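#random but structural
TW: two for the price of one
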Amino acid sequence: MPGKSLTIPLDKPSVLADWRAAIVQAEEFDDGKDAEAFVQFYENFLKANPTFPTDYADLAEEYDDLYSRSLWLALPYLNEKTGYAVFEQ
């Protein structure tokens, strides 16, 4: 992995494990509000770290999976434009 500094250490295995556990729990309890929190967090993270998907391709793939799963759970809490984009994807 590159030595590029991230605004939040999403490259640490413990951080990924914590996010995985949180999303699994949100899925188990159909917790769209917690899922929306991850959606907002990850979108903001990508704005602050635009090269993350290329610099950390393997990790980005895993976070993108969590993001996709979270989008479906968070659907009732998303604005209309974002909600439509979920269905288009």
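TW: number two ↓
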Amino acid sequence: MNIDALRKSMGTNPKESVDLYTQFFEGVRNIDVFLIDFPTNPYRSIVNMATSTWGNKIDKWSTMTADNRFFVVKSVLEFKSLPNAMESFSFSFGVENCSRSAFDQIARTRIGAVYSSMGWRDNNHSDIGFRVPQAVWDNPTAKQDFFDVCHLAKEKYYKLVKSGQSNWQDARAFLPISACHSFSMAMNYMALRSFCSKRLKFCEQADTVAVAWLCREAVLDKFPLLGSYLRPNCDWRGICE
């Protein structure tokens, strides 16, 4: 086995020579969220979990009509039955190009969720970009100040990184939390509903909200019924929180 080739394919071979390059992204533009993995038939899982306590047969899916299956699934999704069936399946997402600060907010969801994040210590981020809040982007003076600060931070980062690989860990301290970040995450459906109920609200940080809405769209595309129940809590309660 060629270890160097394996490391290159997995991305574990650090980029040692990276040119200094900085790109700025407006607001929430160019954030990418995609499904890495998802259940084959989550509705069957919901039905069988919800009806396991009834009768002696566990797998009732094959003997139920489509209308009856829908009735059971809808009852679970609306908390009219035990909600534990919503924890029986998970979705894995890839998230690229949000800000580091958005990731820090998203990763606060810990029950029913797991994350794996782009490293900042063992990667050379001399070519990393920055996400500019929309209000800053729309203000010429603030925008130029933002650009100046990020360019200076990157120049100092690049200078320290160039002095030796052992300095990468120290150099990362120069980078602002607006630097672009990528990660993967997996959540069971119950955790995803809880995440969306909080992070779909437009009072949250813009790119945090964008990631949540893009997760919703990804689920909605595959499973419209499940996706339709991913809503901000303001919608459920009928008031702005």
